[in-house]
User: Fold this.
Amino acid sequence: MARATVPRRLGERLCWRTARLTRREDESSLARTLVLDVPGWPGHQAGQHVDVRLTAEDGYSTQRSYSVASAPDGETVELTVQRTDDGEVSPYLTDELTVGDLVELRGPVGGWFVWRPEQKEPVFLLAGGSGLVPLMAMIRMRRAVGSRTPFRLIYSARSPETQLFTSELRRGDPGLDTTYVYTRSSPPQWPRPAGRIDASVVSGGGWPPDFEPTCYVCGSTDFVETAAGLLVALGHHPGRVRTERFG
Assistant:
């Protein structure tokens, strides 16, 4: 019987690799960035994700998908994981995994929700909570290659305590404009009361439709549906709206 041949690069992405934690950093009260060394890593694109597998001593195994936070950098992969109290994997990754420990990775996965440096059209990023992670990889990739493609980011977080990459975003990159929205509590004297994004936020913080930006929306299902709906209602072509959701 003839067998279908798996292309070499696809086969590389489908295999499990052992990754070693080399550094961990606090990103917020709930999130940690895990810096992993992954020998033989085939490389990734900004916006892709990986599968993470944990196996207990008794053989029980479970896996979850996490977006890559870092721009491509050899055999280093950064994952920013937000802890969920009822989660099976995230509490271990954020609270128990220590430098030198091993996990298994498979990937990278995904080819639609990516930004490539050769794209020249403006980029409009809309992130809800930890949905910022793959969009941060795009921002870092832009910086790493010296791209002058203009980016605009709207970032919705519950509160200042839960937002991610605070110092890096506030440091600012030329050509990157960021608008913050807080849904539960905002900083003192913040100009906008706490609340969800709406049409005024999207139109004020983003690109007008006639600029034909590519829009990347990532967050919870509710956030993605709301943000994508606002974009289309404001006149952005649905084919230019790319979405990624979790939960």
